[in-house]
Amino acid sequence: MSIDNPLSVSTATAPVGRARGVVRWLAPAVQRLGAMSSVSVTLLSLLWFTLTLGAYPLLIPDEGRYVGVALSMLQSGDYLVPRLDGLPFFHKPPLHYWLTALSLKVAGVNFVAARLVPALMAALLIGAMHAFCRRHASRQHAAWTALILVSSPLLFGASHYANLDMTVAAWITCCVLLGAHTALQMEQGRPYRLALMGLYATAGLAFLAKGLIGILIPGGILVFWLLGRGKPGILLRLFSLTGLGVLALVATPWMWAMQARYPGFFDYYIVYQHFQRFLETGFNNPQPFWFYFALMPVATLTWTPFLFQRRSGARKPDDGLGPVRGLMLSAFLTVVVFFSIPTSKLVGYVLPAIGPWSFFLADALVRRRSRDGEAGTDRRAVWSLALGVALCLGAVAAMVMRPQVNSRALGHVLAAEYKPGDQVVFVNDYRYDLGFYVPGLKAVSVMGDWSDPDIARTDSWRKELVEAARFEPQHGASTLIDRNALRERLCRDGKQVFWLIGAPDAVRHSLVLTHAQRLYEDHRIALWRFDEDDHAFMCGETPKDGLPGRSAQPGQ
Fold this sequence. Notes:
Elements: H1 23-35, H2 38-50, H3 62-76, E1 83-84, E2 87-88, H4 95-107, H5 111-136, H6 139-150, H7 153-159, H8 165-188, H9 193-210, H10 213-228, H11 232-238, H12 241-251, H13 253-261, H14 265-279, H15 291-299, H16 322-340, H17 354-372, H18 374-401, H19 408-417, E3 423-427, H20 434-437, E4 444-447, H21 461-469, H22 473-479, E5 480-481, H23 483-492, E6 498-502, H24 511-515, E7 517-521, E8 526-530, H25 532-538
Parallel strand pairs: 3-4, 3-6, 4-5
Antiparallel strand pairs: 1-2, 6-8, 7-8
């Protein structure tokens, strides 16, 4: 196989046309990018992603949820237990929360810091692919793979979305590439022990990012690849007791700590979250089996045509890159097939396949340049790169001009009036991102019908809160309340200020909201204040003059 191959297939004889304009500079730029250190490529990628991270508010539910959990860690100082609205939240492992809390602590509570982790993880994925391709394929493969990735609408969007998907994809990719590098070093009789320990350490980090799939997917990729190449001996050599110790040291202490504190943790976190949820059908976004196979060409929309522009009857090149192509094929198919099995399919799940997919596009482009000449191929590549970048920036512009649902305006109104000791109650509604806009927000309760059996059947914020409340029942009982409990609280202390949040039309079904003062309203959410004057009217004391008319004047 090819090791440290600087040009690979590019050295083949091919017709060369005259390049003009921007195309004239592309070949030298690609050469410099291929020769550049992978650390520099990672930093340049991070710079590109961070330029537009703060352009628009947090999206809900996902960004509000995951940033909110990290923010609660920062504010409480408890970095061990992830909490959603103060309740233990064990849907996901803690690595992403830890990294986001660190980002918020260092860079402040702002949109850039909230999204810095996915941007960093996207840059890490690009740097890892660049390093592996430069080492085991060619500098051209490294450069083109990096260019395709930075201009991929899917990767760019994931780098700007503060959830766990990009973190998972980066560590799975690093784990696979370290494992493949270790195997190839073994075959060549070169040093491999440090890379082998890196394989197990990144598997542990992948586990802390998403759970068992952080180990199962990289393991499956490497097993299929090595067995497919007829290398069972190398596969056995990858097994290391020392490596397993490294994996256990990274992955298990947090779980044991949670099990010691919450006896039902293992059953919920391992059995339910890792196995039952994988096969359940009651979740959002049901899609057909072929969904991800159709998605991948769209993920690199402007570059995908290169994959289908191969000359019919062309012979398979004898360039020594068969093992690398086999690895990328194993990685692509393992990820796509694995996540195609469940009924529920979210776009971000397939991100671990974006690196291998981009390699195949780069490989097709490199071979086309070798066969047909650089000028014509580079002209198309310039257009692909320019259009890819334009799509990424256009998506950001669209988010700015047509903002998605968020609680920024509501939060600013509440933050201006909120004081420590006030109570906030959501009425048959919930906004994960509210705490991001209201510093020091505490004592949040949610009113609803928590005995509804449909809650357990549908993946929703209600189900998340109910499951979280089971780990701390007493705390859960004070957080998840019904209509009677809300009225009792409102009438218990006339000096207490309550902030009630719900749909604008909720006032039609709530006597409480009829008596409260409406301070904010948009077409999705409204904010009411219930204080001493409203307490006197609703709870049986003598109302003040003009009180009933106050709730009819919404302000913004």
